[in-house]
Amino acid sequence: MITPGERSPDPRSLGDAPVDPLSLLEADTTLAAAQPLLELVERYFAETGTGEGPVSTWHSAEAIADRLAADMPRHARPLAEVARRLSSLLLVDVNRLAHPMYIGHQVSAPLPAAVWTDALISALNQSQAVREMSPAFTPLEYQVIEWMTDLVGWDGRAGGTMTSGGTEATQTALLAARARAIPDVWARGVGTNPPVLVCGEHAHYAVTRAAGVMGLGQSHVVVVPSESQRMSIPAMRERLQSLRDAGKSVMAVVATAGCTATGAFDDLEAVADACDEFADTNGPLWLHVDAAHGGGAMLSARERPRVRGIHRARSVAWDPHKTLLLPLAAGMLLMREEHDLERAYAQSAPYLFTPSQDARAWDMGPRSFQCSRRADVLKVWVAFERYGADALAAVYEKLCDMARYLHERLSQHEEFTPLHVPESNILCFSWQPPGITDATERDTLTNALRERYNRSGRGWITATTLDGRRVLRITVMNARTGREHLDALVAGLESEAKRVMS
Length: 502
Ligand SMILES: *Cc1c(COP(=O)(O)O)cnc(C)c1O
What we know:
The protein is of the alpha/beta class. The protein folds into 2 domains: about 30-65 and about 80-110 and about 390-500, Aspartate Aminotransferase, domain 1, CATH 3.90.1150.170; about 125-375, Type I PLP-dependent aspartate aminotransferase-like (Major domain) (Aspartate Aminotransferase, domain 2). Helices cover about 40% and strands about 10% of the residues. It has helices spanning about 20-25, 30-50, 60-70, 80-90, 110-125, 135-150, 165-180, 185-190, 205-215, 235-245, 270-275, 340, 375-410, 440-455, 485-500; strands at about 160-165, 195-200, 220-225, 225, 230, 250-255, 285-290, 315-320, 330-335, 415-420, 425-430, 460-465, 470-475. The strands form 3 sheets. A 7-stranded mixed β-sheet has the order 1-9-8-7-6-2-3, sandwiched between helices. The chain has a 4-stranded antiparallel β-sheet with strand order 10-11-13-12. It starts with 20 loop residues before the first helix and ends with a helix. Pyridoxal-5'-phosphate binds next to helix 7.
């Protein structure tokens, strides 16, 4: 084990000539120099592939912080030594998402081809803000966005942008909706009587956060209660009617396709119908679909019916870094009318964005919250080039099948009860500890069970609160996770449950 404070000898103190910084950098440009780092990736894929070894660490954040405490290194070390230190200091404590027993949050065990592409994206370091800084990948982003808008079912007027994720995509969509509702908002602000946002109670916090950031205030978010984890359509219509009666205007209605807690899909056709029916002087209400998680369903003929009606949205957020299994970060905002996007940020910056001679605006910066922006589109393109849409659809179907398999297994279980039929790759289930009737005590024991199981290193799952109660939750984000691993999860929970109760 290498201790963090340890330093390689300073060449100057050994009487050598001072280090030439350029030669230091040049020494790292070969495959041979990169080998120790690349081998860490290879070893990670290989070790997690066997399904052996712990899935996560049991060390506390404090213990890890203590181990890392060190002064800023002043002197160079060979890359191979850095790789060794990195391995012994840090890799021992990572969450191994590529391990088939990691069935936790909505972060993927990434597609290997995309992982290798990340190094190339960094090496080239093209910034997507301005076409002249990214001459090849700007048109590529337009192309990949077009694949996705075609998939939604939109025509040539559609467009979009890559984002850091669903949060930014939803924020940007709602800014565009704000610009439609209040045309001079960029100059004058939202005023004292801003329009409201309508969303389901299970909507991601991206929506309320956007309301805060946009200066609407959370009091201008109208939250519609759920029915079986979906936005209740009668309740939504009732809210829209009362808003109309009160003379309040609606900036946007946000529906969720694959909600975070349970993976349930809102009835997009019914929401779109209501948006048409409650149209105001601007036309139908702006429908934003947060498909950050469930957008992958669009690729699969079998799962596609869950997003029926998605083409009626005006904007769609979709994260390839969720169910398409891209590494972080790869988010997307798709717009039915590309020109809507130009209104989200009414920004001029003559030092950066120059008027285009072309028919198309090309520069991505004016439509994106980020200025400097990685060409993450390249890894999405490589994923489709390498695997093809059919294999990616099959992967999505497998993820969903595994959630259904666990649902089936637990349906006959005495202590664990599935709480919904999975609509995607997410399943919530409850634990009924024998002899415990008090709900608060059950919540405490449920938390303890998850903690014990995760600390055991055998697997890793999450928990959430559903209808006021703590429940266990899995998200299958790894193509390696099979039935045998879900059987092992049940066995692991059963044995940890016994320990919690003893
Ligand atoms: C994950 C998620 C988000 C947030 O996306 P980020 O990529 O984490 O910013 C928003 N909405 C839903 C439904 C999600 O599942």
